[in-house]
């Protein structure tokens, strides 16, 4: 009987420890959102709930998407843990269910993908017209990496819907760069007009050799007059909206006077360069996405 009581005591103690651990995880405390002066918080995702990204805010892209990139997008490569969204680029084979031998489409003439990753977007769920956007992230910089934070307009085909690249990282003539871009439509189908700023990555690592190992804050200030893109409070690009008009395909409209949705993705290959297999898995970490509106404009 004594052994039975001892066994029950041990089981109860173990259960109490596990329960306390679960409570501690649930009770994890995060700092409050810092709201810039003159603004109000419109929406944020702090990624503080472990598991898949919040389905009320984010949709997943699936399959081959754009630019003849190497990766197959799938939900499995995006997860939230310890207050951070982690998008993982993996070297793994994935059969292409839409494979058609001899097809002229790059999305169909590949029998399989050899890399996987994720792209999540707020299209149809969270869309915004003007405001301050802040995204704190740590990006992968190994060869093959093409991480991005960007927005697209919710009306008209690309590029007449308007594209804002708050952050891109990729190779230009084999040299790594950070990019801050704004694009809109021309008179030719699928041909954009660009206001582009490219900054050699060496300019950041010269100041801080450990730059790539740290989180940084990308910011967009967007109003009726301009789009301004910042990295760690340094202005990279300014686009005056009075200078922006689509071509005839986009009805000569300004696509930056319409709501946009947010995309977070890690592409592999293409502009990212030849993948460095020794660097896999790649990890793109996003601490938060925050959208603020000027007071009175909510």
How would you describe this structure to a colleague?
By secondary structure, the chain is mainly β. The protein folds into two domains: 1-30; 38-294, Jelly Rolls. The chain is 10% helix and 43% strand. The chain contains two helices and 18 strands. The protein has helices spanning 2-26, 202-207; strands at residues 39-45, 59-60, 71-73, 78-81, 84-95, 112-117, 119-121, 127-128, 131-138, 145-153, 163-172, 175-185, 192-200, 216-222, 226-231, 234-240, 260-268, 282-294. The strands form two sheets. Strands 1, 3, 4, 5, 6, 9, 14, 15, 16 and 18 form a ten-stranded mixed sheet that branches. Strand 15 (226-231) and strand 16 form a beta hairpin. The longest helix has 25 residues, at 2-26. The radius of gyration is 22 Å and the shape is globular.
Short descriptors:
298 residues; 18 strands; mainly beta; 2 helices
Number of domain units: 2
Radius of gyration: 22 Å
Pick out the low-confidence regions: 4-12, 16-25
Q: How widely separated are the two ends?
A: 68 Å
Top CATH class of the largest domain: Mainly Beta
Helix content: 10-25%
What composes the largest sheet? 10 strands, mixed
Helix-and-strand structural type: mainly beta
Find the count of extended strands (DSSP E, 2+ residues): 18
Q: Roughly what fraction of the amino acids lie in strands?
A: 35-45%
In short:
The chain has 298 residues and is mainly beta. Helices cover 10% and strands 43% of the residues.
Secondary structure: elements and pairs:
Layout: H1 2-26, E1 39-45, E2 59-60, E3 71-73, E4 78-81, E5 84-95, E6 112-117, E7 119-121, E8 127-128, E9 131-138, E10 145-153, E11 163-172, E12 175-185, E13 192-200, H2 202-207, E14 216-222, E15 226-231, E16 234-240, E17 260-268, E18 282-294
Parallel strand pairs: 3-6
Antiparallel strand pairs: 1-18, 2-7, 4-5, 5-6, 5-18, 7-17, 8-17, 9-14, 9-18, 10-11, 10-17, 11-12, 12-13, 14-15, 15-16
């Amino acid at each position: 009987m004594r052994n039975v009581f001892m066994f029950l005591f041990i089981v109860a103690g173990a259960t109490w420890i596990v329960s306390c651990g679960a409570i501690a995880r649930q009770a994890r405390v995060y700092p409050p959102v810092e709201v810039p002066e003159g603004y109000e918080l419109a929406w944020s995702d702090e990624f503080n709930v472990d598991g898949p990204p919040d389905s009320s805010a984010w949709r997943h892209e699936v399959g081959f998407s754009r630019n003849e990139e190497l990766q197959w997008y799938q939900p499995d490569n995006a997860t939230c843990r310890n207050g951070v969204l982690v998008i993982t680029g993996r070297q793994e084979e994935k059969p292409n269910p839409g494979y058609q031998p001899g097809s002229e489409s790059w999305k169909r003439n590949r029998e399989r993908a050899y890399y996987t990753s994720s792209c999540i977007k707020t299209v149809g769920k969270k869309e915004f017209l003007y405001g301050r956007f802040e995204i704190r992230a740590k990006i992968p910089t190994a060869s093959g990496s093409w991480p991005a934070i960007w927005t697209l307009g919710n009306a008209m085909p690309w590029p007449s819907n308007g594209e804002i690249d708050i952050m891109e990282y990729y190779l230009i003539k084999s040299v790594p760069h950070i990019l801050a871009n704004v694009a809109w439509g021309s008179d030719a189908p699928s041909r954009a007009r660009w206001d582009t700023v490219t900054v050699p990555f060496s300019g950041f690592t010269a100041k801080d050799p450990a730059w790539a190992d740290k989180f940084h804050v990308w910011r967009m200030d967007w109003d009726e007059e301009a789009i301004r893109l910042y990295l760690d409070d340094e202005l990279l690009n300014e686009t005056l909206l009075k200078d922006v008009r689509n071509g005839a395909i986009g009805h000569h409209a300004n696509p930056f006077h319409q709501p946009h949705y947010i995309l977070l993705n890690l592409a592999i290959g293409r502009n990212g360069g030849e993948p460095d297999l020794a660097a896999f898995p790649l990890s793109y970490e996003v601490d938060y996405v925050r959208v603020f509106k000027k007071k009175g404009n909510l």
